[in-house]
Amino acid sequence: MTTTVRPDTEPGPQRLRRALRVLVADDEPDTVLTLIELLRQEGHEAHGVREGSAVMQAIREFDPDVVLLDISMPDMTGWDVARKVRQLCGQERPLLIAISGVYKQAADQILGKLAGFNYYLAKPYDPSVLTALLRDAQ
Predict the structure, then answer these.
(1) What does DSSP say about strands 66-70 and 95-100: parallel, antiparallel, or unpaired?
(2) Does residue 133 contact residue 35 with C-beta atoms inside 8 Å?
(3) Which of 19, 23, 68, 112 has its Cα between 20 and 30 A from that of 40?
């Protein structure tokens, strides 16, 4: 007896990946909207905030798997927000990705690790790099 698997019933890579809940925190409205659209196109659930002070409340309500966090927000630095996230949630989850329009060489990456960031992306970033990081997070 042979078994035939039809292509439409065989799980493909897209069906095997689970959707992530991603919180985008950036004071630039265009950046938030662009990232949310990109994330939704990739099949993820996305929510955005524009102030560092709003991140903790959004984490409690949205329970994200990943937080994309601008390090240069006017009300609260991303470094301070990341430290608070790690104090509240621990080191493993959510995955923290620092995003910044100002790249100050390796010092920012070192500070990012101290604050609890998992990755650092300089703006403008390649969307394929971000989606690859998210695929690894799944």
Answers:
(1) parallel
(2) no
(3) 112
Encoding tokens for residue 13?
């890579």
Element (H, E) at 66: strand 66-70
Structural domain count of the chain: 1
CATH number, residue 57: 3.40.50.2300
Which burial class, exposed, middle or buried, applies to 54 when counting CB atoms under 10 A from its CB (0-12, 13-18, 19+)?
middle
Model pTM greater than 0.85? no
Average pLDDT over residues 6-24: 63
Q: With contact defined as beta carbons under 8 Å apart, do 64 and 109 qualify?
A: no
The side-by-side arrangement of strands in the sheet containing 95-100 is 45-49, 21-25, 66-70, 95-100, 119-122
Q: Is the distance from CB of 120 to CB of 82 less than 8 angstroms? A: no
